[in-house]
Amino acid sequence: MEAAFSLGDELGPAKVVHVHEPGIGLRATLVVDNVAAGPSIGGLRMAADVSTEECARLARAMTFKNAAAGLPHGGGKSVLYGDPRMPREKKEALIRALACALRGVDDYIFGPDMGTDETAMAWVHDEIGRAVGLPRELGGIPLDELGATGFGLRHAAEIALHHLGRGLAGARCAVQGFGSVGMHAARFLAEQGALLVAASDSHGAVADPAGLDVAALIEHKRSGKAVSDFLPKGRIRAEELVAVECEIWIPAARPDVIRAENAPRMRTRLVLSGANIPATDEAERILHERGIVLVPDFIANAGGVICAAMEWQGATQSAAFDAIAERIRANTAAVLESAKQRRVLPRQAAVDLARERVRRAMATRRWSIF
Ligand code: NAD
């Protein structure tokens, strides 16, 4: 078979579009994976080292994430080759040109991802009217400012802890990566009486078994200071965060931070995946054997995409947040219950749930994946 089709399996991709405009140095790829459930939503990632394979993997992840969240959307992703910190005029020209080139691909809706933001989405919207994650002035719901993903994590936490026979009040949590996802998760959990006992950012970590003042830590971080300077006597080594004793451990920074060598050191009951793929397969198995429940990324961190899909439908901010709570609670419960009944890892249960929803959508189509 031709190399161009080597990415294909029974779920997708439906189409791969390469865009090239030598006049301005534009090189980009769009993968529309599976649109059986509806037009695909997925981020535009800008980086120098992206690839078609990465784009296809991310598009498939969006198919599962959107299906798992019960959204009327399939999965897609686009990648733009280039350094996102290039001069603004050049970046704007590239993104506007890419939007124009993809004007006719109306089963793909642009969203923000690494290297792009709401301003970039405003440029796409201006050209072709097909983007989510827009600035408020254009009808957007600013999901990072409001903490849509952190809000979803708080609901996943409540359901998962209930599954373990306890509530959020007094539950201790540790957050790795006190950024947009991590700080809002900590804030929403603290509102329910949970205690933030440790947090980190790329500069270091801090811990206090008596609980850190979340509002003050957010203010400290927003003023540009490092988390580890918040409480000098509570400073711990970044590698020690994984072993902090708590009920909820939230990875909200980088992939693969929980690995075979540190998973045995975790002293938590629950790992709530804020970041994508925070644990390796082997680490997930180790945690499972140790009785630590891991709520998979595309179940726990779907708040952002649910918010984006609601924005696309023209919903209000409060309707979007209601949808996040309702869907994430239902999905977390369904996945943990199914994992328990079938004695499989939560990830397996989550993938099966998503696949089943995609297959049901496919069964309604004249073709299959589009
Ligand atoms: P962000 O850049 O706002 O925050 C990331 C934080 O992690 C920063 O505080 C940074 O200092 C810290 N960090 C980086 N490397 C670290 C390390 N090695 N150890 C500890 N901390 C480290 O990013 P974000 O939007 O909060 O996203 C965090 C993760 O969640 C990413 O993996 C992202 O793909 C994923 N995610 C984000 C959303 C969203 O709505 N923003 C939705 C789903 C998934």
Features:
single chain; 40% helix; alpha/beta; five-stranded mixed sheet; binds nicotinamide-adenine-dinucleotide; 370 residues; globular; seven-stranded mixed sheet
Descriptive account of the structure:
There is one protein chain. With 370 residues, the chain is of the alpha/beta class. It is 40% helix and 17% strand. The chain has twelve helices and twelve strands. Strands 9-8-7-6-10-11-12 form a seven-stranded mixed beta sheet. A five-stranded mixed beta sheet has the order 1-2-4-3-5. A hairpin with a 4-residue loop joins strand 1 and strand 2. The radius of gyration is 20 Å and the shape is globular. The model has no long low-confidence stretch (mean pLDDT 96). The structure holds nicotinamide-adenine-dinucleotide.
Low-confidence parts: none
Ligand inventory: nicotinamide-adenine-dinucleotide
Major sheet: 7 strands, mixed
Radius of gyration: 20 Å
Strand order of the largest sheet: 9-8-7-6-10-11-12
| Strand portion | 15-25%
General shape: globular
In a few lines, what is going on in this structure?
With 370 residues, the protein is α/β, with parallel strands linked by helices. It contains twelve helices and twelve strands. It has helices at residues 52-68, 88-101, 118-128, 143-146, 148-163, 180-191, 214-222, 281-289, 297-300, 303-312, 317-342, 346-362, and strands at 15-21, 26-34, 40-47, 75-81, 108-112, 172-176, 195-201, 204-207, 235-236, 248-251, 270-272, 293-295.
